[in-house]
Design a protein that fits this description.
Blueprint: E1 3-8, H1 14-17, E2 24-34, H2 36-44, E3 57-60, E4 64-69, E5 72-77, H3 90-97, E6 101-104, H4 113-119, E7 122-125, H5 131-137, E8 138-145, E9 154-169, H6 176-194
Parallel strand pairs: 1-2, 2-3, 3-6, 6-7
Antiparallel strand pairs: 2-9, 4-5, 7-9, 8-9
Length: 195
């Protein structure tokens, strides 16, 4: 397992190819908060996102915040939400908008492996229940767009030392989630055979 420090948005897609499933990653720069309603607006309703997502790292979240001025928010708690229900948007995010990394809770199913490999994307795993730590690693909410979808807006966070994250699915077709499921399936067969 290697450790990488990656700054987002990335401009060189080869940076993503250096990451292998199981590697540890610390993130600097900016990450974009996104959730179901935001992606439904983009893909199901055909509305172009009001920010550049090229090279972006998307975090599946709907944060708890406090409004301090028009268009300005301070963080209260910024955690992750379950990713699997949003897997259908993966290909569009990579192919149409150049997104390079996604992170959420619970992983992505196997259907995400092929498009992530073809489009040069990764899925990052984060420790569950670590919202308090994540919140401290987000230095500032710099921008909030589509506020009418609150809290499922588009959020631009500036982060410092965000992580550690684990590469759950890499851009080479490897998935820790697939491997764990395969081992569990084999173990189950072994246990049934003993009965």
């Amino acid at each position: 397992m290697a450790h990488h420090e990656v700054t987002f948005p990335i401009t060189d897609p080869h940076e993503i190819l250096k990451l292998r499933a199981g590697d540890e990653v610390t993130v600097q720069g900016h990450i974009i908060g996104i959730r179901d309603r935001t992606q439904i607006r983009i893909f199901d309703q055909g509305v172009e996102p009001p920010m550049d997502l090229s090279g972006a790292f998307l975090l599946h979240t709907a944060p708890n915040v406090r409004k301090v001025a028009e268009g300005r928010y301070e963080k209260i708690c910024i955690g992750t939400t379950t990713s699997a229900r949003m897997v259908r948007f993966t290909e569009g995010l990579g192919a149409q908008y150049g997104v390079r990394a996604i992170c959420g809770k619970g992983g992505f199913p196997d259907v995400a492996i092929e498009p992530m490999q073809r489009l040069g994307m990764v899925y990052f795993a984060i420790v569950g229940g670590a919202a308090a730590l994540e919140t401290t690693q987000i230095e500032e909410i710099e921008e909030v767009l589509w506020e009418e979808l609150m809290p499922e807006c588009l959020w631009k966070f500036r982060v410092k030392d965000f992580g550690p994250l684990i590469v759950g699915i890499d851009a080479h077709g490897n998935s820790l989630y697939h491997d764990v499921q395969a081992r569990a399936h084999d173990k189950l067969k072994e246990l049934y055979a003993r009965l």
